[in-house]
Amino acid sequence: MKKYLFASLSLVTPFVLSNAFAANTTTFTAAQQEKIGEIAAQYIINHPEVLIQAGQKLQQQQMKAQEKQQITAVLHAKKQLLSDPKTPTVGPSNAKIAVVEFFDYQCVFCSKVAPAIEKIMKDNPKVKFVFKDFPIFGQRWPTSTYAAEVGLVAYKQGGAKMYMNYHNGIYATGKDEGKLTNKDVDMVAKKAGVDLAKDKALLSAGKTPPPSIQANFQLAGEALGLRGTPALVIMPTSGANEKNVTVFAGYPANPQGGTAAAVTAIQQAIDKASQ
Q1: Given a cut of 50, is residue 49 above it in pLDDT?
Q2: Residue 8 has what pLDDT?
Q3: Torsion from C-alpha of 121, 122, 124, 126, nearest 10 degrees
Q4: Structural domain boundaries enclosing 207
Q5: CA angle, residues 228, 231, 232, in degrees to nearest 5
Q6: How much is the mean pLDDT over the chain?
């Protein structure tokens, strides 16, 4: 945060000095303009908090612009987000609200948000939840991709119930950031009732992501501009617009607030989508 703010201030400072009175330069002589610049510079020296405020304002504007771009991208990618039959989906098919999560099983913040998602699902039985595997750590930790592959097999074999038993089971291991192993994945899958031998051809041990996961990379990274996990999109299934769509490009709340803060943020987004 500090690094970003200082970088912003380095851009703001010359902007403030050179443009503070740019709109009125035609009404001042060159000498007057120089004097005004000196006064402005001295004011900033005496009141450096102005630069901090300007930097914060710039950061807020940039974040709002990025959020607007992502929401516009979401509206264009609605079909890919909500209507892929191969993507694990839980909840009524005629749901009016959808929560889409992009996640990696080795992502520590995905692990932290998992209990919040589980509670939100229990509290909102009429909402549809879409789980988009986005194993961004797959090259570093191949088990990320393998766990995603097994999840797709679980959904193929046993639908939403088997998938959620597997999905929550993986996070229940408490293993992330490289600690999760293929053996852990197999044990959780077996407990959830997944027959790995039956669909062995669909498993690459994390070496080659299947087409559906590759499509998620294109959707998240290229179409939506998401750069990390978790990422959440909360939107109405029909009538979506800039006012009722929410994109959380990261943990949905201050991590220090724990599960309760994440639940509150997600619930507020669901309520907004229903208006």
Answers
A1: yes
A2: 43
A3: 90
A4: 78-273
A5: 175
A6: 88
